[in-house]
Amino acid sequence: MAELRLNITMSLDGYVAGPHPGLEAPLGVGGEALHEWAFAQRSFRAAHGMQGGATGPSDDVAAEWIEGIGATIMGRNMFGGGPGPWGDDPWRGWWGDDPPFHTPVFVLTHHPREPLEMAGGTTFHFVTDGIEAALERAVDAAGGRDVALGGGARAVQQYLAAGLVDDMQIHVVPVLLGGGSRLFEDTGEIGARYRLVRSVAAPAVTHHRYRREDPGGA
Amino acid sequence: MAELRLNITMSLDGYVAGPHPGLEAPLGVGGEALHEWAFAQRSFRAAHGMQGGATGPSDDVAAEWIEGIGATIMGRNMFGGGPGPWGDDPWRGWWGDDPPFHTPVFVLTHHPREPLEMAGGTTFHFVTDGIEAALERAVDAAGGRDVALGGGARAVQQYLAAGLVDDMQIHVVPVLLGGGSRLFEDTGEIGARYRLVRSVAAPAVTHHRYRREDPGGA
User: Fold this and answer.
1) ipTM over 0.95
2) Which of A10, A109, A148, A190 could form a disulfide with A76 if both were Cys (CB 3.0 to 4.6 A apart)?
3) What are phi and psi of B108, to 5 degrees?
4) Which of chain B's residues have a Cβ under 8 Å away from the Cβ of A192?
């Protein structure tokens, strides 16, 4: 049974992006600091077409995050391009011609758009009929493999509140952003629903993994 | 120069107490789990008049937290007894006749009350003229030692927003409470103000310590 697996990095004060995001600072003020740990890991770099990188506990976590994923879901904010209709020369994502997903990617949006095929196996599909429809389509596309849930915060909150996330890895970086997009907001009663299965402490980041107690559904 | 030092334990989803606090569950649903790590440490137990306990990295952190403190500040919610005037048979705190503070304790409240002297060196003073007045009185009372800032969340947020916290230790316990009293809310631009000086990973808790970049004031 395919699982929906969340992997996301959060500041100590609870944000997945800093305040005042924009084209020049897509992750908001200070938000880049959240992802330094990932960009330093060998397996994450390889997935992004980069050489080198560290091995060790954080690399193991990053490798596990990438492994066995057959489709990806993300919110409109993570895909980018601002709110509203797509326009005549629509935004093609933050990641260049060969995005690091290498799978079908289902983007949650209120604005319809034709699929966008990129190099390296990534095709962006724009889903306008909600999170459950996006998950169904992603599960189908994944062909027995798992579905990765990226950000942003609002997309994650909707899947958490609906009880649809099977496995989550929260990477906590001890920076303070003081504002931005908060991850844990309006998530419903997640306390009883998830069980901590592992904490891995590494320099500059702590990785916590949780499993849903009842994988059958909420 | 006396410092204001915050020590507080937070759930991974950012709460210092769970939802629905009341007389029977003063820390809210699930909130007790936040403090299991502290109650297991030798130095914390000794301060609370209990025998035994663990030694190790978390005990070192707990010992440091207690050391050199000459006065304590807390909010009305942490002192307890519910909101509003104190009444004829007023609440005497959660801690019995010999509270673990062993210093003067300044309780932030809107409702005046005579000081309350307890055993073991703890006297509760009720401060109705705001956080800066409470800090001044606490610094005076501490006689050159530091001032500890306890909870609840609202008291901490006020001191953080005013730029008055010199040193903070945030103990993160990877439980998910799903709601309750959020620590980092309305704190202002703390990102630029604090520098991480240490992270200590221990079983079931990670201790992060931050120092204010400009100890001269905000």
Assistant:
1) no
2) A109
3) -75, 125
4) 178
Instruction: Give mean pLDDT, residues B11-18.
Output: 96
Chain B: residue whose CA lies nearest to A202:
B201
Chain centroid to Cα B98, Å, comes to 18
Q: How many CB pairs under 8 A join A and B?
A: 78
Q: DSSP assignment, residue A36?
A: H
Would you state the pLDDT for residue A218?
45
Q: What is the pLDDT of residues B73-132, one digit of tens each?
A: 999 989 988 889 999 999 999 999 999 999 999 999 999 999 999 999 999 999 999 999
Q: Give the CA angle between residues A47, A1, A46 to the nearest 5°.
A: 5
Tell me whether A194 touches chain B (CB under 8 Å): yes
Closest CB to B172: pick one of A172, A190, A204. A172
Output b/e per residue, B56-76; b: 16+ Cβ within 10 A: eebbebbbebbeebbbbbbbb
**What is the tens place of the pLDDT at every residue in A30-62?**
999 999 999 999 999 998 889 999 999 999 999
Residue A170 touches partner B, C-beta closer than 8 Å: yes
pTM of the model: 0.91
Residue B123 structure tokens:
């006297």
Q: Is B16 left (phi over 0), alpha (psi -120 to 50) or beta?
A: alpha
**Contacting residues of B for A9, CB less than 8 Å apart:** none
| Pairwise CA distance, residues B178 & A112, whole Å | 33
Q: Is B211 on the interface with A (CB under 8 A)?
A: no
Residues of A in contact with B12 (CB under 8 A): 170, 172, 208
